[in-house]
Specification:
Strands 1-6-5-2 form a four-stranded parallel β-sheet, sandwiched between helices. Strands 3-4 form a two-stranded antiparallel ribbon. It folds into two domains: 1-41, no CATH class; 42-240, Rossmann fold. 36% of the residues lie in helices and 12% in strands. By secondary structure, the protein is of the alpha/beta class. It has helices spanning 2-13, 36-39, 88-99, 105-119, 137-143, 147-159, 182-189, 198-201, 217-228, and strands at residues 79-81, 129-132, 168-170, 193-195, 205-212, 233-240. Helix 4 crosses helix 6 (147-159).
Amino acid sequence: MLACLLKGIKDLIYPDCCLVCKNKIETNQAQNLICANCLGKIENNLPPFCSACGRHLDTEAIKKNSCNGCKDAKFYFDRAFSPCVYTGTIKKLIHEFKYCNKDYLGKTFGAIMNEFIHDYNLPIQHFDYIIPVPLHKSRLREREFNQAQIIGRQVAERFGKKLLTDAFIRNKPTKTQATLSVREREQNIKGSFLVTKPELIKDTNLLLIDDVLTTAATSNEAAKTLKAAGAKTVILLTLAS
């Protein structure tokens, strides 16, 4: 009875509010602090998908099987997929996740990715390892968690795959990519990854996990490093793009 009373007082003074719309949230939705209305506004990335970046193709691009942005790009990952479009609700939630210490959102994000893998029959059974894009140790100290690793763990546990976290590192600090141009992002991230256990990477099929695909500079450099170490296939899966 005392616990219920204390909770009632807390809810009166500090009611749970949705992270996106800031409205008071129902008790049965309070676990991740996202109301049903905002969850329903997440924009799904729908097929047909670009054969390179995985974004939705418009009518004109379907004939080419790739979008205009990927026409002249060189990617080291073999395919990329994303369940969500990086806008609105999901963009706000990813920001809260990464920069406001809302690491518990990883369960929600993992569930979204797992549903996408299941619905679109991604060949999860053929991957030897799931590898999250690593953070440099200085950024990890600052943030206290790697968002890609949290999401990747949800996928690994759901499908019984090995999450590889100690064979691939970011070996030099870089500037935040968000403020840089495409060319600056490529130069900023160049040479920033290192395979520390090449014997684990050689001749493997890998699922590379990250939170967002924008210009693909970071994930492309990561895939390039993994391919140079002998990986046969690198498929990129991000929450949004």
